Amino acid sequence: MNTDSELLIVDDMSPAAENICTVTLRSASQRRLPSWRPGAHIDLELPNWITRQYSLCGDPNDQHSYRIGVRLEELSRGGSEYIHRLLRPGTLLKVRGPRSTFPDRTPAGTVFIAGGIGITAVLAMFLRDHAQGLRPMLLYAGRSRAAMPFLDELPEDAEVVIAAKDEDQRLDFADLAARLPAGTAIAVCGPSRMVSAVEEAFPEEKFQVHAERFRAEPRAFVNTEFLTACARSGMEVTVGEHESLMGALARADRPLAAGCREGVCGSCEVRVLSGEPEHRDLIGAPPGKMYPCVSRSSSERLVLDL
Ligand code: FES
Predict the structure, then answer these.
(1) Given phi > 0 = left and psi -120 to 50 = alpha, else beta, which region is 49?
(2) Which of 24, 161, 267, 288 is deepest in the core (most CB within 10 A)?
(3) 158 and 152 in contact (C-beta within 8 Å)?
(4) Is the pLDDT of residue 221 over 80?
(5) Cα–Cα distances in Å, from 163 out to 110, 125, 154?
């Protein structure tokens, strides 16, 4: 395990499926990257100060680049949204790892099960075992083939079952469990509901199951009403659930300069004198500042330097 952080540069970003892109990273100083075993992941520190874990899904023999796959989460205003909307080739990122919670080796005949973007966690293990003649099986489920990355990287002579929901295909775990010999290793990565179904169908007493659930991105924010005071003018305004702080200030005759109105340009920056801002921007507000076009307050009262 490597716990040091390394400065890597975004070398390439490419679409891999609907709402999924791959990001290829290289050493900013052209050095060889720390080696990794299939199943490993890295921690990526994004410029908006959010750190996220991503499985390495490239070639472990390539010592000069790491590849990750990132799905744009519908409810995210954090890591995946930043990567899809703002990250560009040439950006420097701090990376920690690689490290792994999967076993270093998987037994012959391992059954890999992936749901959606969960394929990134098992792809390299499946390809390694296939190349080594260990006869792995891959069960890969997704909303549709268009939403399932890396289908074109699966070897034609490998045992692969694809289940696309929009084609009415489903994985029958109970049927498979009845046919597999006791002791078969199962490695699964996917949404929580799928992993629970696998754990139920493949009991620990009979199978060796290694499961990884998607870690949920931060919950979607819920708007609540709060009071904002402008320290210099003495003006106070209540910010309602259905308006932005910037909108409430404009309603109270204190309009702010605005560019993007989406928390990405920084032009509406204001200083916070007291209270707890709830930062929702994508660029990382400096300490003591906030972007009122998207950010709100997690305290009942917020005092701004206005
Ligand atoms: S207007 Fe761009 S960050 Fe607020």
Answers:
(1) left
(2) 24
(3) no
(4) no
(5) 19, 20, 14
Pick the CATH number of 226-304 from 3.40.50.720, 3.10.20.30, 3.40.120.10, 3.20.20.80: 3.10.20.30
| Euclidean distance between CA atoms 290 and 279, whole angstroms | 7
Arithmetic mean of pLDDT over the chain = 91
In CATH terms, is domain 111-213 a member of 1.10.260.40?
Answer: no
Q: Can you tell me which atom of ligand 1 is nearest the CA of 257?
A: 1
Same-fold call for 5-100 versus 226-304: no
Q: What is the pLDDT of residue 3?
A: 53
Cross-strand partners of 99: 41
| pLDDT tens column, 166-183 | 999 999 999 999 999 999
Are residues 209 and 233 in contact, defined by beta-carbon separation less than 8 angstroms?
A: no
Domain range list for the chain = 5-100, 111-213, 226-304
- Amino acid at the residue 241: E
Q: Would you state the pLDDT for residue 160?
A: 98
**3-state helix vs strand vs coil in the chain, percent to 5:** 20, 35, 50
C-alpha–C-alpha distance, residues 48 and 199, integer Å: 36
Q: What architecture (CATH level 2) is domain 5-100?
A: Beta Barrel (2.40)
List Cβ neighbours of 136 (8 Å cut-off, separation of 6 or more). Answer: 106, 109, 110, 111, 112, 125, 126, 129, 130, 158, 159
Q: How far is the CA of 181 from the centre of ligand 1 (A)?
A: 58
Which residues of the chain form beta strands (DSSP E)? Answer: 5-17, 20-27, 40-45, 51-55, 65-71, 92-100, 111-115, 137-142, 159-164, 185-190, 208-213, 226-230, 236-239, 270-274, 277-278, 289-290, 296-297, 301-304
Distance 246 CA to ligand 1 centre (A): 9
Instruction: Give distance in angstroms: CA of 278 to centre of ligand 1.
Output: 15
Q: How many CB atoms lie within 10 A of CB 301?
A: 13
Number of the ligand 1 atom closest to the C-alpha atom of 268: 4
